[in-house]
Amino acid sequence: MFILYSILLTLGFIVLLPRLLLDAKRNGKYVDGFRQRLGQLPEFKTDNRPILWLHCVSVGETNAARPIVKRILEEFPIYRLVISTTTKTGQNLAREMFAEHADLIFYFPFDWKFSVRRALHTIKPNIVLIMETELWFNFLHEAGRSGARIFIINGRLSEKSFKRYLMVRKMMIRVFHYVTLALMQDAEGAKRISGLGIRNSKVKVTGNIKFDQIVEESENSLTNEFKRRFAILSDEPLIAAASTHAPEEAIILNAFKEVWKKSEGKLPRLLIAPRHPERFNEVAELIKNSGFDWTRRSEEESGRDESAEVILFDSVGELRAVFPLAEIVFVGGSLIPHGGQNVLEPAIAKKPIITGFYTMNFAEIVKEFLAQNALVQLPELGENEAAAQLAAAFSELLQNAERRKELGENAFAIIEKNRGATEKTLEFLRPHLLVNRKL
Q1: Among 211, 331, 343, 358, which one is least packed by beta carbons within 10 Å?
Q2: What 3-state class would DSSP assign to 103?
Q3: Cα–Cα dist 26/197, whole Å
Q4: Count of Cβ atoms closer than 10 Å to residue 295 Cβ
Q5: What is the pLDDT of residues 44-73, one digit of tens each?
């Protein structure tokens, strides 16, 4: 089974090779750190201290890992921390965020046996923590055989992913043999991962670590910097469109035009933060052709920043610092069948949140937000209808300060009620961290 999997993985790589070569000429999203992805990591000298390997896929998982990393290193300072990511954006954020805490930050190896073994031979981890549910078969198999204890933490498994993994359930049962514990965000995820063949005794529900995130002092400084640079004023309310996907930016810009037509007095401003950096220039063209005065985060400061009607927020890892400045936050990936993005970060900032219909990736969270009157969700709409409905939602909230306050406070109350996942996760990890500490 593993041989067939490796063959299919190789065939898939060959099919994608032209895209990788094209990417190398553009932004290097997929080829950055290519040698590391083949398992050729920078020199890493092991010593008598135990090693904890934390794997985060991208920006979201890297951000979410902050509270658990902080707690583990406070309680178990003897551990050497190494961190891997899959994406370039996640890598950049990890290097910035964990530079003082990690002994090595690198790209996760391609899931061939030889590349995985190379990486494991260099790192020699005692503990492997996999954020959310990044299930690479050869890695789990080889890491388990090497003697490392493997934990899925903050585990999440959507219905779509469950059905996909179900097609290879026999293989899942084999790799789950090497997983010590699967610490899942909610009961639905726990039920699904149990259905894939992991023993029930290995599955625990700990809640979502993302509820435990706090605003760092550095983020407060960044918020103040953005407020000064872009002259964010209360009488010129800012609408932040976060983690957007194509064609959402076009829909949002059309909605913003409608809002402008109906606005009285001071006009609102719009900030658009595309989810994927490789689309920054594409979105810049859309904004440029929209007729609005605009600026972008990545450019040198200029007089345009203070008066721009639309701000393109083309940076990575800084979006959390924007939310405190916004009057309304639209969370993207939800006007299209992508499944939505994280609504928790604007909730931490006590902001009213709007999403589209498609929020399958965060179904349980959105369900609770709706039940507690902490979210505005649009119905299922076509692209033409979406702009008008979104404009109406923006206008309604802009004209109703009490409603904005109510939504924001209700959202924050949900955050407060659900805190504690980090401690619950540590309760299950602690006995294993104590054992390895004695090595």
Answers
A1: 358
A2: strand
A3: 42
A4: 21
A5: 999 989 999 999 999 989 999 999 999 999
Structure-token pair, residue 326: 């916004």
Overall size of the chain counted in residues: 439
Between CA 279 and CA 283 the distance in angstroms is 6
Residue 20 is predicted with a pLDDT of: 62
- What is the pLDDT confidence band of residue 13, given thresholds at 50, 70 and 90? confident
Those residues whose C-beta lies under 8 Å from the C-beta of residue 214, and which sit 6 or more positions away, are 67, 348
- Which residues are bridge partners to 377 per DSSP? 355
Tell me the two tokens of residue 121.
């031979």
Instruction: Please report the sign of the dihedral spanned by the C-alpha atoms of residue 62, residue 63, residue 67, residue 71.
Output: positive
Q: How far is CA 179 from the centre of its chain?
A: 23
Tokens in use for 75? 């309680």
User: Is 12 exposed, middle or buried (CB count within 10 Å of its CB: 0-12, 13-18, 19+)?
Assistant: exposed
Residue 133: pLDDT band by 50, 70, 90 thresholds?
A: confident
The radius of gyration of the chain from alpha carbons, rounded to an integer in Å, stands at 22
Q: Concatenate the DSSP letters of all residues of 370-435 into one string.
A: HHTT--EE--S--HHHHHHHHHHHHHHHHT-HHHHHHHHHHHHHHHHHH--HHHHHHHHHHHHHHH
- Amino acid identity of residue 429, one-letter, is L
Q: How far apart are the first and last CA of the chain?
A: 34
In what helix (H) or strand (E) does residue 17 lie, and over which residues does it extend? Answer: helix 2-25
